[in-house]
Amino acid sequence: MHSQTQTAVVTGAASGIGLALSARLARAGASVIMADVEGGALRRRAAELTAQGGQVTAVTADLTDPDAVERLADTAFDVLGDIDVVCNNAGVLGPVGQPLWEAPLERMREVFEVNHWAHVLVARAFVPRLLARGRPAHLVHTASMSAFVVGAGSAAYAASKHADLAVARSLRADLADTGIRVSVLCPGRVDTPMVQGLTAPRGAGGDTSVSAEAVAGVVVDALGSDRFYLFSNSDAPQRLRDQFDDVWRHVSLSPPSPEEELWPAPKATTGATKH
């Protein structure tokens, strides 16, 4: 971690990667604002870190509410003064294992509210204030390997992570000539409460699993640097290579010949069709 990292805001901090980030930053001496919608769990975790000597403040906030996000930013700057790091980490899994046409629409919308729109709201609340302060800072978006690799039955989660990757890339371009660095965290499977007992959909999970503490280490080690993509799992290179090899394969495909059968033969159906 860069020695300048003295203050940080972490969202989704009551468990998983957010809790691990908060603990790692606090142990390194940073003062941390921990934010989460789960107020009871958040306060317990903050109390545990405080008992271990950490300087942490728990703020219960629904990050899908623009007013709540503005209040979080107000509180963060009031408590911390200047902010060195914002970990835009809140996230939910949503419906998994169902094809797009069967996944409940409201649950899909909830996934986008947390994984995409909450990240947008946090960036919109914090970045202008960081720019006004004129100091170096680092914004870290938690996306996922699902921003690149998509398996069956994961449309809502993967689409929200694709969207967050695009937001992070856009922010990086927007802030290129400023002192604010942007990184996007793309972990594979992580041992967190969110995925306990979950069987990953076909093609979505990868072959490795890492701890939330290991992911937090990847982030903290990158703070202050210009590293944009942050990967935590050892199978990331092969998974990315497979994806982009498939893209290049389609780029180089020649147009179909007139003799090629373009439509597959229909599958046989059972039962008579009534007219």
The CATH class label is Alpha Beta
**Which architecture does the CATH hierarchy give at level 2?**
3-Layer(aba) Sandwich
Radius of gyration: 21 Å
Distance between the termini: 71 Å
Order of helices and strands: EHEHEHEHEHEEEHEH
Region (Disordered): 253-275
Protein name: Oxidoreductase
InterPro entries: HdxpentlteDhPtlF (IPR054968), KR_dom (IPR057326), NAD(P)-bd_dom_sf (IPR036291), Sc_DH/Rdtase_CS (IPR020904), SDR_fam (IPR002347)
GO molecular function: oxidoreductase activity
3D architecture notes:
Belongs to the short-chain dehydrogenases/reductases (SDR) family. This is Oxidoreductase. Residues 6-193 form the Ketoreductase domain. It comes from Streptomyces alfalfae. One of its GO terms (molecular function) is oxidoreductase activity. This protein is 42% helix and 15% strand. By secondary structure, the protein is an alpha/beta fold. The chain has a single domain, classed as Rossmann fold. The strands form two sheets. The protein has a seven-stranded parallel β-sheet with strand order 3-2-1-4-5-6-9, sandwiched between helices. A two-stranded parallel ribbon has the order 7-8. Strand 2, helix 2 and strand 3 (55-60) form a beta-alpha-beta unit. Helix 1 (16-27) crosses helix 6. The mean pLDDT is 91.
